[in-house]
Amino acid sequence: MNESKTQDLGLLFLRGSGALFLLWVHGLPKLLNYSEQLKLIEDPFHLGAHVTLLLAIFAEVLCPLLIIAGVLVRLACLPILAVLLIAMLVVHPEWTLFEGQFGWLLLIIFTSVLIAGPGRLVVSQRFS
Questions:
Q1: What DSSP letter does each residue of the chain carry, written as one string?
Q2: What ranges do the domains of the chain cover?
Q3: What is the pLDDT of residues 61-77, one digit of tens each?
Q4: Left (φ > 0), alpha (ψ -120 to 50) or beta: where does 21 sit?
Q5: pTM metric for this prediction
């Protein structure tokens, strides 16, 4: 296998595994348990629980699906990175590196995808 194909497979694995992990651990629970999540979600900018939860669902459900498909990948990374930075720096600034390691790891993954792009294994090159 040539280096270009190996890099494309690596980018597919990075974006797919990171997006699936975010979707499964954070996005789907918010979507499937919306009413319960309304009582739990932090609202650091006082937008209201509904708006804050909808923004989180957008970043943690729709954006990972776009990234998995390889559609608007770099653009889809931005809301994810915003939610992660807000969670780590505004909502939970008291967390140690150990307590916040999952969030920091996701920041590393999605920043890497933002920088590198999706690779060539995407639904359409036109929209990636």
A1: --HHHHHHHHHHHHHHHHHHHHIIIIIHHHHHTHHHHHHH---TT-S-HHHHHHHHHIIIIIHHHHHHHTSSHHHHHHHHHHHHHHIIIII-TT--TTTTHHHHHHHHHHHHHHHH---S-SS-GGG-
A2: 3-127
A3: 999 999 999 999 999 99
A4: alpha
A5: 0.93
